[in-house]
């Protein structure tokens, strides 16, 4: 609890109650950055050496307030790594604000868009205020089934969408914007043999899942002599999954899932289509989190 501001009487007991110290107390114990008083912006009036007076302690506190503001689009943001030079283990109050119009995304489906790891001291507090978009990467589309002697291959399944936020210690998240998992990738279509006289076709690739970044579209099935090739799926974008790749015989790949949604399965043809990938989690570690404002949350939760 901070020492009151001007107009309130301060005694040595007041200062010692806030910052601790050794009896008998002396003001020389309480230089800023000297071990008892955090070298934080809120304690700027307390000198680091030289002349010191009780009046320097108005409004001071045995806590370090750290404001981290994300003002440009970012990826894989680790709150602990970005804690800054004023961090003091056990007495820091960290607030991360994602500005309006800003996206925090991920560079791969297995990595998180934003992380609050357990590396913080238990005495610290961490608050995230999201006024923008925190979105995981989308899952990749599955490849279409190609030709093999004996009738061809099934389509490959779509990839699972990524997870948006990882939390491994008590954290408060005020979500005034959107937190979304990556969409699952669409499944690739199976190899198809058409009516007599028609050339067979390899399967179309699945569409990539929605995300930041979006998942890649799956490749069309490998071309073979006497067969036509299915088309690749389209990559996902931030709000939407990509379309599945078409083919001459209608064995199209499945569409990628949108924000927080699973992908569609590829078309079953002569060989079955691959299953759609599952959506990821908008958060992993939800039992650690308090949500004063839930906002828009899309995807699964763990």
Short overview:
The protein is mainly β.
Please render the helix and strand layout as text:
Layout (H helix, E strand, L loop, with lengths): L11 H8 L44 E7 L3 E2 L1 E2 L13 E7 L4 E3 L8 E3 L8 E6 L2 E3 L29 E3 L3 E5 L2 E3 L100 E4 L4 E5 L2 E3 L1 E2 L1
Number of helices: 1
Largest sheet: 5 strands, parallel
Radius of gyration, in angstroms, nearest whole number: 28 Å
Strand content: 15-25%
Distance between the termini: 34 Å
Q: What structural category characterises the helix and strand content?
A: mainly beta
Mean pLDDT: 94
Main sheet: strand order: 1-4-7-10-13
* Envelope shape: rod-shaped
Query: Which consecutive residue ranges, at least 5 long each, have pLDDT under 50?
Result: none
Q: Count the strands?
A: 15
Classify the helix fraction into a percent range: under 10%
How many domains make up the coordinates? 2
The oligomeric status of these chains comes to: single chain
Q: In sequence order, what are the helices and strands, one letter per element?
A: HEEEEEEEEEEEEEEE
Protein model, in words:
The protein has 302 residues and is mainly beta. It has 2 domains: 12-57, no CATH class; 63-302, no CATH class. 3% of the residues lie in helices and 19% in strands. It has a 5-stranded parallel beta sheet with strand order 1-4-7-10-13, with no helix packed on it. The two termini are 34 Å apart. The model has no long low-confidence stretch (mean pLDDT 94).
């Amino acid at each position: 609890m901070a020492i009151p501001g001007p107009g309130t009487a301060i005694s040595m007991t007041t200062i010692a109650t806030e910052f601790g110290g050794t009896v008998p107390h002396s003001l020389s114990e309480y230089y800023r950055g000297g071990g008892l008083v955090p070298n934080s912006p809120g304690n700027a009036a307390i000198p680091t050496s030289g002349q010191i007076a009780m009046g320097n302690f108005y409004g001071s506190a045995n806590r370090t307030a750290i404001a981290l503001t994300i003002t440009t689009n970012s990826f894989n943001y680790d709150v602990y790594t970005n804690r800054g030079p004023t961090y003091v283990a056990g007495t820091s109050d960290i607030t991360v604000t994602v500005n309006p119009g800003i996206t925090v995304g991920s560079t791969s489906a297995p990595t998180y868009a934003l992380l609050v790891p357990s590396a913080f001291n238990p005495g610290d507090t961490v608050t995230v205020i999201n006024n923008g978009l925190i979105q995981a990467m989308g899952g990749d589309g599955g490849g279409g089934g190609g030709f093999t002697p004996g009738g061809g291959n099934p389509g490959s399944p779509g990839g699972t969408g990524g997870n948006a936020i990882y939390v491994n210690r008590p954290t408060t998240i005020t979500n005034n914007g959107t937190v979304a998992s990556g969409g699952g990738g669409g499944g690739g279509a199976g190899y198809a043999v058409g009516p007599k006289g028609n050339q067979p076709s390899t399967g179309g690739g699945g569409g990539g899942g929605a995300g930041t970044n979006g998942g890649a579209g799956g490749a069309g099935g490998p071309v073979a002599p006497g067969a036509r090739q299915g088309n690749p799926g389209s990559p996902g974008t931030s709000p939407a999954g990509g379309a599945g790749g078409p083919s001459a015989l209608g064995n199209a790949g499945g569409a990628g899932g949108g924000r927080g949604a699973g992908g569609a399965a590829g078309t079953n043809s002569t060989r079955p289509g691959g299953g759609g990938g599952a959506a990821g989690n908008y958060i992993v570690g939800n039992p650690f989190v308090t949500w004063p404002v839930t906002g828009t949350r899309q995807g699964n939760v763990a």
